[in-house]
């Protein structure tokens, strides 16, 4: 009687009318396998190391009943967030050293054009109403003058209407939505630069 390695032969009897099934043995375990597999270089998000991070909590007040856009404290400048006012002021002071006086920063969150340099205003009028411009650290910037400013670009001029002069302002802010409306234009942003295009001619 000849047998094969699976345990049955040509003439083997089939006990109890069961179908023939080969018997396989598991492969032997590897001899030199390390106890713990090597760690792969996987990037871990910074918030995973933050023991206080809660992905379901509001980023402003840290409560779980709502998200940041619906937070009651969103526009409350007296509310203390993660960064203290001194830290915010230090960030602004540091950023001021990186910009020249004629640099204009595009701001989509502002609601007015602001400059700290009175020479940027062409048609100057004193502002005596006592209003202030609210800034991120909770302080208000005193408005001393209003006026207009003209940006000269190759082939065209662009107007900043209702420009506010706040002597304490460390940077020049260009409110993007107002700029669009005043100049009938739009911005095209790329990874390295931007274009200002006329809405009529493109």
Automatic annotation (TrEMBL):
List the Pfam families hit by this protein, alphabetically: Pol_BBD
Region entry Disordered, spans: 1-42
Instruction: List, alphabetically, the InterPro entries matched.
Output: PolX-like_BBD (IPR054722)
Q: Where is the composition biased (Pro residues)?
A: 25-37
Q: Which residues form the Retrovirus-related Pol polyprotein from transposon TNT 1-94-like beta-barrel domain?
A: 104-179
Q: According to the UniProt entry, which residue ranges have a biased composition of type Gly residues?
A: 1-10
Q: What is this protein called?
A: Retrovirus-related Pol polyprotein from transposon TNT 1-94-like beta-barrel domain-containing protein
Q: What is the lineage of its organism?
A: Eukaryota, Viridiplantae, Streptophyta, Embryophyta, Tracheophyta
């Amino acid at each position: 009687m000849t047998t094969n390695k699976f345990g049955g032969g040509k003439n083997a009897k089939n006990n109890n009318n069961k179908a023939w099934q080969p018997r396989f043995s598991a492969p032997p375990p590897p001899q030199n396998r390390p106890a713990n597999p090597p760690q792969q270089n996987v990037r871990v998000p910074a918030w995973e190391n933050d023991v206080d991070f809660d992905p379901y909590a509001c980023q402003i007040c840290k409560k779980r009943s709502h998200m940041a856009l619906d937070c009651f404290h969103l526009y409350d400048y007296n509310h203390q967030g993660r960064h203290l006012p001194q830290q915010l002021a230090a960030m602004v002071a540091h950023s001021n050293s990186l910009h020249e006086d004629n640099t204009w920063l595009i701001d989509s969150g502002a609601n007015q054009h602001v400059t700290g340099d009175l020479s940027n205003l062409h048609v100057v009028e004193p502002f005596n109403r006592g209003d202030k411009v609210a800034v991120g650290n909770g302080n208000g910037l005193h408005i001393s003058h209003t006026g207009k400013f003209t940006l000269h670009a190759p082939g065209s001029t662009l107007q900043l209407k209702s420009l506010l002069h706040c002597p304490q302002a460390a940077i020049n802010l260009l409110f993007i939505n107002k700029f669009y409306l005043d100049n009938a234009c739009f911005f095209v942003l790329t990874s390295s630069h931007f274009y200002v295009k006329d809405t009529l001619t493109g």
